[in-house]
Write a structure and sequence with these properties.
The chain is an alpha+beta fold. It has 14 helices and 15 strands. The protein has a three-stranded antiparallel β-sheet with strand order 3-11-10, with no helix packed on it. A three-stranded antiparallel β-sheet has the order 4-8-7, with helices on one face. A three-stranded antiparallel β-sheet has the order 13-14-15. Helix 11 (393-413) packs antiparallel against helix 12. The longest helix has 26 residues, at 476-501.
Length: 502
Amino acid sequence: MNKNSATILFEIEENESLGRYLMAARDINQGDVVINEAPVVKGPSQITGPVCLTCLQKITKSSSVECKRCGWPLCKNDACHETGTDHEAECNWTMEKRRQKVKISQFITPHRTYECVSVIRCLYLKENNPRVYKKLIELESHCEQRKGSEKYESDKMIVAKFLNQFFKISEDEFSQEEILRICGIIQINGHEVPLTDPPYVAIYEFTSMLEHSCVPNCSKTFLNDGSLLIRATRPIKRGEHISICYTDPLWSTINRKEHLMLTKFFNCECQRCADPTELGTHYSALKCLKKTCDGYMTPHITLNNNSLPDPQWKCASCAELQDKEKVNSVLIRVAHDYSMTDKKDTESCKMFLDHYTKYKIIHENHYFLFDVRLKLAQLYGQTTENDIQSVSDEDLRHKISLCEQILNFAKILFPAEWRIQGVLNFELHASVAESARRQMLSGEIDSETLRNKLLKSKRWLEDSIFYLRYEPDILPEGKMAKQAKKNLIDLESLLLKICLQL
């Protein structure tokens, strides 16, 4: 269950409301690897242009060659043409069932033929690896809840009917119900893996049993080989349920709830979703519409007839319910200004922050302001060739302030987002080190003060390495982790020199 340790950290439990879930078998420390597992099955996303069906990287007509056996296009890497690869399922079905090579001629836009590939790979296991297929088919599919939805009807026509016609699959081999169950299993349990362009989808056995929470106790990281690593982001007591976040914790409660209802078919009632203030942060709060009130209104959410969030906006100060249409008009106006803000331009970001901080139309912790702060904190120093050294003193101070503010905020609202925390700790380290360098050159600080600032920088750097240590080196966070380790060696050498001078 855990490839890195002989100790099993979790047990599989089951109850009527949750189904199967994972519970801590013993006390787990922060940072412990709880699960390290390879995917049960992986394949291209349902909506995708042509990709190599071995490495799953994007291909073009000129960068691909046809599989000699089945005609599906593969990239020109020799390893992707070897027998016994991930391409086996659709290759064998093409020749054994269709008995005619596939011909892909359009490489520009999403290609309908690829919508069935991941489903084929799941169905193929039934005869060729029944043990794994049994595990796969036991995962939640929410078929009854999916029935009648746009996605369900699309799967019925584009996947089930297509498999029947294109691959000549009979109802006796795989019923429509079984095919649609697999479609549901992929939708509910599939993880988007960002290791290729475009990302692919993968299903993991034990990770699929993890509970959801918008404030989970574990984070997930994809390794270079596509394995999934689940780490404890805080101490977990024996008997405690183990959880990850199925949605984006940087979204508001309304958006998270809607996303979970539409894609995972359940209403989240975690501690964050149950609290209109989102753990005291007022992450969604708007200024009260009553002119004589200086309070902020928060959404009190119920579900409408379509099981989608239906918020009632209530002011925390005057306790009055607010007019929904007027609230929505405010949100639309702010959302428009947010969408018009160039997130790659520092001045555009600062203008948005200055405007909405000054006029207090939304709470200072509102998610629109938070997102722009997060973008700006990383943007300083990335728009010029000299990076951090070219940032003005004022902007450098602002960058440091933003990083500290966001990291403090993250501890409350999304403590499991270790990639964000790792990146911001690295940015904070680099900014403080640069500030110390400037003060040293100008003679503003003595050696003792310099040493103390560099020790702070070192602590943030060590935190960054801790958060990002498992990130794959093909992703920006993995490259940052590699650079952080080099920086730590240099920083320790510099600190040693300073200590010898004291």
